[in-house]
Amino acid sequence: MTKEPSREFKLMALDPEDKEFEEAFVKRVGTFVIACMNARLDGTIYLGVADNHSDEYYHGQIVGFDLGPNQKALMQKMLEENFTGDHPKMLRGVPKEQVLWAKSVM
Q1: Residue 62: per-residue pLDDT
Q2: Phi–psi pair at 57, nearest 5 degrees
Q3: pTM of the predicted structure, to 2 decimals
């Protein structure tokens, strides 16, 4: 039996200019990445999509968020620094054997 890929929605209501944006972005994406690796699943994260029902949005509603000319490059840089390369920030403090396994599936 083949496992279905995981899909995750994240509203990302913070302004990308906000200094807390990078921390929230990395935490939300990182949590999903780790969950997929632990379950050995492929996955897709949809940013700008409501992740739960509220008075304002329903689960799965496409909301979006504005990205200025430099913000797309900033988000790409955050992904590269935290999730790729020989020493991704996301894996700092993780036991060596788990890092080796994580790198083999990333």
Answers
A1: 92
A2: -135, 155
A3: 0.65
